[in-house]
Amino acid sequence: MTTRDIINNIKQTVKTKQKWPIPVIITLFVFFPILINNSYIIDVAFFLGFYTLLGLSLNIVLGEVGLFDLGHMGFAAIGAYVTAILNTSFGISVVILLPVSAIAAGAFAYLVCSPVIHLRGDYLCIVTLGMGEIIRLTLVLNPFGITGGPNGVFGIDFPSIGTLFVVDNSIKFYYFIWIIVGFVVLALVRLQSSRIGRAWNCIREDEIAAESTGIDVRSYKLLAFVIGAALAGVAGNVYATKLMIVSPESFDFMESCLLFCIVLIGGMGSIPGIIIGAAAISLFPEIFRTFAQYRMLIFGAAMVLMMIFRPEGIWPRKRGAIELKSIMTKAGTENG
Amino acid sequence: MKVFLEQLLNGLTTGSFYALIALGYSMVYGVMKLINFAHGDLFTLGSYLGYTILVLGTAYTTSYLGLWGGMVVTMLIVATCLALVGTLLERIAYRPIYSSGRLPLVVSALGASIFLENSIMVIWGARPQAYISEVIPAKILNIAGLRISIIQIIILILSFILMSILYYVVQKTTFGAAIRACAIDRNTAALMGINIGTIIFFVFAVGPALGGMAGVLVGMYYRKITFIMGWNYGLKAFTATILGGIGNIPGAMLGGLLLGVLEMLGSVYISTAFKDVFVFLILILVLIFRPTGILGEKVAEKV
Amino acid sequence: MAKEKNVEIKNNNIDISIGKEEKTVLHAENLTKIFGGLTAVNKINMKVKQGQISSLIGPNGAGKTTVFNVVTGIYKADGGRVLFKGEDLAGNKPHQIIKKGIARTFQNIRLFSNMTCLENVMAGQHCRSQQGTWSAVLQTAGYKHEESVIRKNAENRLKQVGLWRFRDELAKNIAYGNQRMLEIGRALASNPDLLILDEPSSGLNDKESEDLIIFLNSLLKENLTILLIEHDMNVVMGISHWVTVMDEGKKIAEGLPEAVYSDPQVIEAYLGKEDEEEEY
After folding, report:
1. Range of A180's domain?
2. Which of A59, A230, B44, B63 has the smallest count of CB within 10 Å of its CB?
């Protein structure tokens, strides 16, 4: 059976509304580290969770609302650095800093996106790209000496509540990230089927119609950015505590580009698709480790090929393969 | 004052690079409504090709044809090769995707960019390469008390000539009118009998060709080239495009030169380190306050 | 002959309105809109009375849709103002205007193509609901209650426009005539006081147009006021209580349908433009 067959199989089962795959998947996730006693693989699984969280955060902006955001890693950087700086300079617990990072990233997104939220597709793309770069460059340039320059900030604590609950090894980090992802998925699924999610999708379909149907387009777009940024901030926080060091190069354009691909390759707006996309992206470097030099070459080619042959993604949203043409041509053309 | 004028000249020189690259962005975006992310890498490819032709074989070309002959031949070869690569790029990575919409095009453009950038790395290596001094006219002249290098004069004159030719073609010929018509409304232009295929071929050949030539000039000016420089130049050239008004050929030229000067002013009077941040801030400010750019016009959307 | 049937319906309408005091629901006062060098709407004065069906007609390019766009907040007026139930609408964005009670449809149908018909109509309820992000995530009782209310209202509206059987179908997959009705259903879902329809019969065949006429009449019973842009004279003559005619941005005639129909200026405006939409 090819991978495609397996995927189609799973799709079929889920479509026929049999609920059993979900408990099975959850059980697999829970027992995974116990079955696989390999620290390296568990770390890979951690990063799968990390990219899934990031993918989910970008999905709100890109998948649900259809806004091109090519600088999303910038928000994760904010979260990571807020955690790193406040923890190493003031000794504040990183667990407390988790919501703080979320709020910081969200507030930053609100401030920075408000003036540009009205821009249409392509232009927003470039602006977010520019913003991501500005964040990275500012971190490198070390204003007021707080960001540590190109070397970054190191010595970040592990998450801990008192002395009982300490996350200090691969297995615990694995559970930590995936529990967070679990909650986020639950929240996002609920949002998706709510009035808010509907409003977002309406904006993606036709902004003018959405506005005329009573949706405050500007507010909802900002809301999407704020929530997306906050979740990215959370991811940044966990990343900082896992690696114990943060540096600007972890948050460059290439990473934002990868996130973009995760959402697109997985299938815009589709939550299961994001997980698959995250898997594709985080496992890709592992699979191609032997071809190190040609790795990015293959990746670039894969992106192009993917768009030629399956632009709707591996697991498109169950509403029906979203015809990107109708959405995206409206996003930018003069004749609506 | 003297220093200021020399710096101004430097700004105009870098501005010429941005302008030549920006032209490629502007033409493609104007006609295809596509941000060709790979364009910066085409520029890089040009500089590496120039490097190969001029420098490898211990400056064989130059020793055979002389300094000027070498330069001319290099420019011609690079322009031709880049025109070829550009049209191939369109054919392979973009044409099959037009019908799928904007977003897949963006991803494909990004993918093509990654592919090109890494191809350059694979072929020429990850370490920076250098345009050795034997192949570059290195004289520094003293005109009216100002120190100007010959290479700067070459760059300014050559850029001016290239841009003038393009300006003439686009603004004064029938073919140019066809290009401008496509930039306004491609579908209607097609209905009016304009051969879109020719226009597409033109923008994807001439744009990269200009970018490639800019690459050679950059190599000769800065002497050092790296495979990732397309990223930085590309983004700045795109800023120039937006500044001048996207889809607008004279706008791209103006935007490029203006950006070069602004960047120079920023680095001299504010801070050299924050130079790049300064440029990106300009980008964002322009998009907020005057998204159509200096020379652009508003296009109303019919509801 | 078809004309007799129209006269029949028309007489019924006139009976309803005679003797009642008619409030002005919408009042466009010296409304002006300029695009670059073109004055699309030139000092238009228009009143729409409560409980009536009014039509705005005129050759293509007369500025009718522009008037709608200014009323619904998509464009800002360059001169004059629009009063809705006495309140000046200036400075309001479209999503605020629908909340005040004006809902509209578009000339080139603007549905949410990749959402189901039911979801499209549920979207119309957006301005009549207020549960936010937190209550959605936490699934509070208030949220669940509101969702069921939204769903119920949407289902009713969908049934009202006769599209219940398509509720789970993607909007882009249903027939053109049904898409028009769906758009009307979405507009109705916001419980408007004034319904503005931009060429609702465009693209419909004769049977569908007749059904539309009957449907629009039925809406009057809900205390709705309707303003139409129309090209189909059958529809205009058939149900309008009042007709306003525009040409090149200016109002050139208004009055009862037959009066306007035989007005020489109106005839010239249409015939002069060689408007082939004129079926008569």
Report:
1. 36-252
2. B63
